[in-house]
């Protein structure tokens, strides 16, 4: 489906949806504990993937569908191996092109038989054994999270050793924090992480915090040309994307922090340098912020974006150029000369939820209408995005 964005501004208050990242982790910990609830959970395709696989494991099913969730795929493969299951992981769409090569190399060393070409389908059998797991830190932090969840479920001690510096470390910090909430200890070391064997996940009813990643779309909209408050946010969160507050401030944006909310009000913005090594998911919406900021912005450290739902560097640059932005692609990001005004255009959504939501914000202040295809991709993470967008005064017509 397409969405047509007409000129408007967003004003008012909205509550952040529950964090997808925290919910993935809590659902797995809850499953390993044998009980308890995890609420609230957003009704998205990514959440459906993790919930569905957990139900399939409970029912001793052999085919586990990750749908299009990379997190589900990389978290649940080692978890299923820690249970000694014989299962085949399958998926849909762009997920079929996303690699699980680290597990194809690692798991056989530790007692698991693997059948794969490096991507899905990925079949495993045999019992995962504890030990030392050497992982590249510059591919995806999701491998580390999956291992931590799985190794804590084994009887013997284990270590995750980083062969290269860990990128997107806040995502692993979140994993360690959620595991601690469930009574499982992971110790960070100079070389990686130590996990004691024989730990038990405790049963509890878990409350999922608000999602800083999703809040970022509305906060940037407020900073560019509105007055938006996002409620339900935790400043003590381990979510790396709470850095959006500091990023907007770096561009000179007007940001007011409340006890559990953030308000962004329109003001003059100027370009800035942004190292996105730990916040790659924010790059699409930061690129929109930069396009409306006067002067030069350099976004770097985002090379892993080339292997997301789309090549997000290519996707962002192509759409910005279509809107008349002076932007140059680099191997690990982009250079944007902003503040010259954007024009409405017909854009590609690339079946990528973050691209669609980011350019829905870009279209708010562009000259003329903006039409984005494959807008249904928002169902992957935030199905009610356009409802909240229009509630705040946006003019999004879903066709």
Shape: globular
Number of helices: 12
What class would the helix/strand composition place it in? alpha/beta
> Major beta sheet, specifics?
4 strands, mixed
What's the Cα radius of gyration? Answer: 21 Å
Measured as a percent range, the helix fraction is 25-40%
Beta-strand portion reads 15-25%
Which stretches of 5+ consecutive residues score pLDDT under 50?
A: none
SS elements, strand count: 22
Average predicted local confidence, pLDDT: 97
Strand order of the largest sheet: 20-21-1-22
Intertermini distance: 6 Å
Descriptive terms for the model:
four-stranded mixed sheet; globular; 399 residues; 12 helices; alpha/beta
Explain how this protein is built.
The protein has 399 residues and is of the alpha/beta class. Helix content is 33%, strand content 22%. The protein contains twelve helices and 22 strands. The strands form six sheets. It has a four-stranded mixed β-sheet with strand order 20-21-1-22. A hairpin with a 3-residue loop joins strand 14 and strand 15. Helix 1 runs parallel beside helix 2 and helix 1 runs parallel beside helix 3. The chain is globular, with a radius of gyration of 21 Å. The model has no long low-confidence stretch (mean pLDDT 97).
């Amino acid at each position: 489906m397409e969405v047509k964005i007409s000129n408007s501004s967003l004003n008012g208050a909205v509550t952040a949806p529950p964090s997808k990242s925290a919910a993935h982790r809590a659902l797995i910990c809850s499953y390993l504990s044998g009980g308890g609830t995890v609420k609230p959970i957003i009704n998205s395709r990514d959440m459906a993937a993790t919930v569905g696989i957990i139900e399939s494991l409970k029912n001793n099913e052999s085919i586990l569908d990750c749908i299009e969730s990379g997190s589900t795929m990389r978290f649940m493969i080692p978890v299923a191996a820690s249970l000694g299951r014989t299962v085949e992981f399958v998926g849909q769409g762009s997920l079929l092109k996303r690699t699980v090569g680290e597990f194809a190399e690692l798991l056989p060393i530790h007692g698991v038989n693997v059948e794969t070409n490096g991507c899905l389908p990925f079949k495993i059998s045999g019992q995962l054994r504890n030990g030392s797991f050497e992982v590249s830190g510059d591919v995806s932090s999701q491998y580390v999270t999956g291992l931590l969840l799985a190794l804590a479920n084994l009887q013997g001690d284990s270590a995750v050793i980083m062969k290269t510096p860990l990128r997107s470390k806040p995502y692993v910090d979140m994993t360690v924090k959620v595991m601690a909430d469930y009574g499982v200890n992971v110790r960070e070391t100079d070389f990686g992480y130590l996990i004691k064997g024989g730990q038990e996940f405790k049963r509890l009813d878990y409350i999922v915090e608000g999602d800083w990643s999703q809040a970022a779309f509305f906060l940037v909209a407020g900073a560019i040309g509105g007055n938006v408050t996002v409620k339900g946010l935790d400043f003590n969160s381990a979510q790396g994307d709470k850095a959006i507050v500091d990023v907007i401030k770096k561009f000179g944006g007007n940001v007011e922090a409340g006890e559990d909310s953030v308000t962004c009000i329109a003001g003059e913005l100027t370009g800035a340098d942004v190292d996105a090594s730990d916040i790659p998911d924010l790059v699409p919406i930061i690129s929109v912020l930069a396009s409306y900021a006067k002067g030069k912005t350099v976004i770097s450290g985002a090379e892993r974006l080339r292997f997301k739902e789309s090549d997000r560097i290519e996707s962002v640059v192509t759409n910005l150029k279509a809107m008349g932005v002076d932007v140059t692609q680099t191997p690990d990001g982009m250079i944007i000369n902003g503040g010259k005004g954007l024009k409405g255009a017909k854009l590609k959504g690339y079946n990528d939820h973050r691209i669609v939501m980011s350019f829905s914000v870009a279209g708010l202040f562009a000259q003329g209408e903006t039409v984005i295809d494959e807008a249904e991709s928002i169902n992957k993470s935030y199905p009610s995005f356009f409802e909240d967008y229009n509630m705040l005064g946006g003019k999004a017509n879903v066709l």
